[in-house]
Amino acid sequence: MVARYTISMQIFDNVLLSDFSTMRLGGPAAHLCEVHTIFELQEAMAWATARKLDMIVIGGGSNIVWQDSGFPGLVVVNHIEGYDVFEEDDTTVYITVGAGENWDSVVERTVEAGLTGIEALSLIPGTAGATPVQNVGAYGEEVSQTISVVQALDRSNGLMVTLPAGDLGFSYRSSIFKTGPQRGRYIITSVTFRLTRGNPSAPYYGALQSYFTEHGLTDITPAVMRDAVIAIRSSKLPDPALVANNGSFFANPIVPLGVLTQIQADFTDGPVPNWPVDNGHTKIPAAWLLEHAGFKNYKDPETGMATWPAQPLVMVNESAASTAQLLAFKAKLVDGVRAKFGITLEQEPELLP
Ligand SMILES: Cc1cc2nc3c(=O)[nH]c(=O)nc-3n(C[C@H](O)[C@H](O)[C@H](O)COP(=O)(O)OP(=O)(O)OC[C@H]3O[C@@H](n4cnc5c(N)ncnc54)[C@H](O)[C@@H]3O)c2cc1C
Questions:
Q1: Burial of 213 (0-12, 13-18, 19+ CB in 10 A)
Q2: Of 76, 5, 82, 96, nearest to 35 (Cα)?
Q3: What CATH number did the domain enclosing 271 receive?
């Protein structure tokens, strides 16, 4: 008997993936479709399985660098919507959001409802369903602090599963969805957040506290926090709709304290910024390392790439024609920082496939 599949959405062939990454680089996907429901997602998976094709699910493409060779399988763009509220009691509210919802719109809705928990994650591009993948974080908040459960399609058996936050291996910019043996196994269909009524509590993240002080703000509601984050981010980061970029291109390295001591001994201009992680380790801002390795506002005509003037951690594509050029530029930065500080920076966006 020949398997037959009724596909309710269109599957396109030979689609340029540069249109599905905010870095705007990359070759073609053999096939691509957009799904709006779990049923469509299951259909897409069955379509790819029947043809023995690999499959990658993406959201807004804001954390993806596609290879020039493209992808020989099926790329699925997730548009699954939904926003359901469950009020547990006077203080705790659970919201379950469809994985394809625009993340910042979700944050805006929760802030308008007077809820606290994700307001510092305002203006991060992409979809809600991608936030658990790298445990999205900014200004002292990470989604792992508020995620209750994640609903997902398990590709190993085609079943829907509910994964409690404790099983998701969350760490700094990582989870089981990004690294380790479970990578690629689950397709996230919705995420449930546990938020609280009322205001975010002090102490606030340094840059936010400075902003509040500067603007005479003392009553810190979720809306005040969101406005501050938007103001700070807008002054530092390029808008991906206007300038091709993936946000921070490198994670902040976590190094043994001895490495910090060594760098500090060589750097006499002042204290080297760092945030202690545990007794033996500290996190050094990758932006500081890049700046002091000579990559502040650095333009590279050879590759058409540059670092963003207000934030060297952001690599921008000014006129690069290929991912090979982006990778050559990245290698220059990584080699420069390693030569100066002996630290190897790790790339944050995923190079796919
Ligand atoms: C200007 C700018 C600023 C940024 N600032 C921050 C920041 O402050 N903090 C931060 O953490 N990140 C930041 N980012 C990175 C990025 O926005 C986030 O990682 C975001 O969550 C990616 O969402 P996306 O929908 O675009 O995911 P995509 O880029 O489409 O996908 C990212 C990864 O998640 C996987 N994925 C996507 N959807 C699903 C799903 N439903 N199920 C399973 N896997 C899935 C993809 O396969 C891929 O591996 C920034 C990016 C830009 C361009």
A1: exposed
A2: 76
A3: 3.90.78.10
What is the 311 CA–ligand 1 centroid distance (Å)?
19
- Hey, whose CA ends up nearest to atom 46 of ligand 1? 58
Are residues 339 and 258 both part of a single domain?
yes
Is residue 73 located within the same domain as residue 97?
A: no
Residue 5 Cα to ligand 1 midpoint, Å, equals 31
Candidates 58, 101, 121, 141: which one to mutate for ligand 1, based on the most atoms within 8 Å of Cβ?
A: 58
Shared domain check, 136 and 273: no
Out of 173, 174, 175, 190, the active site residue is 173
Instruction: Please report, for the domain that includes residue 30, its CATH number.
Output: 3.30.43.10
Q: Choose among 14, 10, 48, 44: nearest CA to 28.
A: 14
Q: Is the pTM of this model over 0.85?
A: yes
**Given a cut of 90, is residue 1 above it in pLDDT?**
no
* Catalytic (active site) residue 18: no
Distance CA 326, CA 215 (A): 39
Catalytic, 226? Answer no
Q: What would the pLDDT profile of 140-173 be if each residue is shown by its tens digit?
A: 999 999 999 999 999 999 999 999 999 999 999 9
Phi first, then psi, for residue 152 (nearest 5°) are -150, 160
What residues make up the domain containing 294?
Answer: 244-352
For residue range 53-79, list pLDDT tens digits in order.
999 999 999 999 999 999 999 999 999
In a domain, 1, yes or no: no
Cβ of 162: how many Cβ atoms within 10 Å? 12
- The finding on whether 131 has its CB within 6 A of some atom of ligand 1 is yes
Residues 71 and 108 reside in one and the same domain: no
Task: List, for residues 179-215, the tens digit of each pLDDT value.
Answer: 999 999 999 999 999 999 999 999 999 999 999 999 9
Handedness of CA 227, 233, 239, 240 (dihedral sign): negative
Is residue 348 part of the annotated active site? The answer reads yes
Cα of 137 vs centre of ligand 1, distance in Å, is: 11
Q: Is pLDDT above 90 for 9?
A: no
